[in-house]
Amino acid sequence: MKFKLAVYRFALVFTLALNVAGMSGCDSAKEELEKTRAERDGLKTQVSNMHASMESVAKDLSEAKAQAAKCQSASAVAPALPVQAAPAARPAGKGAPSKSPAAK
Hints:
Blueprint: H1 2-77
């Protein structure tokens, strides 16, 4: 009878020791899991922000392309305006007016 009682006590103590050791092992795993989840959530936020940024850039790009197409079609329809040549520079000499104040 004493032997059976000793075996039961040993089994109980052993089971409790395994549970305590298992719980302490789970705590470190739990902490690691929480760190991983926090990192994952941060990465998800970054990806979400990048998607929003890409959508904004895509919208701006499509608007710019539409504006460029509108400008090209307007320039194709508008008649070409004659380009006026710049007046020729006068050679410096007797006929050219003097720009210095002393000449007046």
